[in-house]
Amino acid sequence: MGKVYSAGYGEIMRTESFWDEKLHISTCGRLDYQEDKVHFPYEPTPYCVLERLAESGYIGKDDILLDYGCGKGRVPIFMSARTGCRSIGVEYDMALGACAEDNRSQGRMAAVSIERVDAEKYTLPPDVNRCYFFNPFGEQILRGVLDRICSSFYESPREILLFFYYPNEEHVAILMTRPELMFVDEIDCMDLFPGNNPRERILVFSL
Predict the structure, then answer these.
(1) 76-103: average pLDDT
(2) What is the pLDDT of residues 152-182, one digit of tens each?
(3) Count of beta carbons in the 10 Å neighbourhood of residue 120
(4) What CATH number does residue 59 fall under?
(5) Cβ-Cβ contacts under 8 Å for 139 (sequence gap 6 or more)
(6) Which helix (H) or strand (E) holds 90?
(7) Assigned domain for 72 exists
């Protein structure tokens, strides 16, 4: 289910347009055409949330961030621009992946790469140490993706941090019961939007 905006919507959209123009990309708007029982609609993480993540100190120039379900590429492009990290966007939808690649090219982001592949089939590179999720898919795919992340960790031990924005109850239940994962932090984003929505947060887990 997507996010619901009410009062303050105009200001939120002005911020969205500002960053898209600044980065020379086009990522605004929501697309429902590819929604099904396992893949959720395209809806970009609000820039104000990404600013808070960038300011958290969890991602820096020595890190490599993987965005699962990158859509049009907003997260990898913005985070690389703001933190200096390298970023990879993974997107199963070919049309969205093409948009992400166009945005990467328009933004001249050499530190960003886009992989057009199903997340369940994507092998985590051994140097990736940060992973980002904004409810890109259902529970079955999430379990498979977590299995691949854990396999990569065991093959190449290193600290891996996982970031889950706007988590739903089903995903939280999966995360809290995975023995390999340790809850690290919660980045509160409730003050960024009206309504005091408890889902406005980023949960941080580590392996």
Answers:
(1) 96
(2) 999 999 999 999 999 999 999 999 999 999 9
(3) 16
(4) 3.40.50.150
(5) 170, 171, 174
(6) strand 86-90
(7) yes
Handedness of CA 124, 125, 126, 128 (dihedral sign): negative
Q: What is the dihedral of CA 111, 117, 121, 127, to 10 degrees?
A: 0
Show the tokens assigned to 153. Answer: 């960790």
Residues 140-152: tens digit of each pLDDT: 999 999 999 999 9
Asked if the structure places residue 2 within a domain, the reply is no
How many domains, the chain?
A: 1
Separation CA 167–CA 189 (nearest Å): 12
Span between the terminal Cα atoms of the chain, in Å: 28
**C-alpha–C-alpha distance, residues 97 and 87, integer Å:** 14
